[in-house]
Design goal:
Elements: E1 12-19, H1 22-35, E2 42-48, E3 52-55, E4 72-74, E5 81-84, E6 88-94, H2 97-100, H3 104-120, E7 135-137, E8 140-150, E9 153-161, H4 194-208, E10 219-223
Parallel strand pairs: 1-2, 1-10, 3-4
Antiparallel strand pairs: 2-6, 3-5, 6-9, 7-8, 8-9
Helix pairs in contact: 3-4
């Protein structure tokens, strides 16, 4: 990756999208990525989805055990199969990685470490794993990461379980791992309102992305319908 231009100042729009259907929002991410240019400000989208299973580019159907009435969508991120549903915070970083001087691995690390630092504020010890992207508390998985890089820019992102029905994860091998147990913030004793989580996570994420600004002059938050 190229380094940051000497005159580059990070400008980021933060969008709180509420609950959005998965497929239309995925298409919006693709369009944003395909039409952006070097002057387009980066964006971070926070949202949640109605129940859906998503299958990554190389996902094997053997990990889709019993989806039942939950729709299954084949998408263009990396990784295997996972579940999205109400009570899970989706974090979508739509970033020009070349301009920011970020590689893929540092972006994954920034996403993971932002959750590790966030839950540490509540005395929960979490960690990432070199062999399996995501954030874990003991043997349980709290957050999953799956990205796509196109035209030097990122989309898709991270799913953080806040207060979600964990039962659908038993219908799959989450992220391709048999008998992987999932957890959420509420189960770990972190009882926050859903909308609080993105606000509390954001400063950690911006810091790890190298986009922190002491006076926040380069950031704007937009609440979108």
């Amino acid at each position: 990756m190229n380094g940051k231009p000497d005159d580059w100042v990070p400008t980021v729009t933060i969008r709180d999208l509420g609950q959005r259907d998965y497929i239309p929002l995925w298409r919006e991410m693709q369009e944003f990525t395909d039409t952006r240019d070097e002057s387009t400000a980066d964006e971070i989208w926070f949202t949640e989805h109605p129940p859906v299973f998503t299958m990554g580019l190389n996902a094997s159907e053997e990990h889709l055990l019993a989806p039942g009435d939950i729709p299954v969508v084949q998408i263009d991120r990396g990784g295997q199969v996972t579940f999205h549903g109400p009570g899970q915070l989706m974090i979508y970083p739509l970033l020009d990685l070349r301009r920011a001087g970020l590689g893929v691995r540092p972006l994954v690390t920034a996403l993971e470490q932002s959750v590790v630092d966030f839950v540490a504020e509540y005395d929960v010890a979490a960690a990432s794993r070199a062999d399996a992207p995501g954030v874990y508390v003991g043997e349980m998985k709290l957050a999953s990461v799956g990205l796509r890089i196109r035209r030097g820019s990122s989309f898709h992102g991270m799913a953080l379980n806040v207060d979600i029905d964990l039962e659908p994860f038993s219908r799959i091998n989450p992220c391709g791992y048999e008998e992987l147990q999932m957890t959420d913030l509420n189960s770990l004793g972190i009882e926050l309102q859903f909308e609080e989580v993105s606000r509390k996570l954001l400063p950690h994420l911006l810091r790890h992305l190298g986009m922190a600004d002491s006076n926040q002059s380069n950031f704007r938050t937009v609440t979108s319908p």
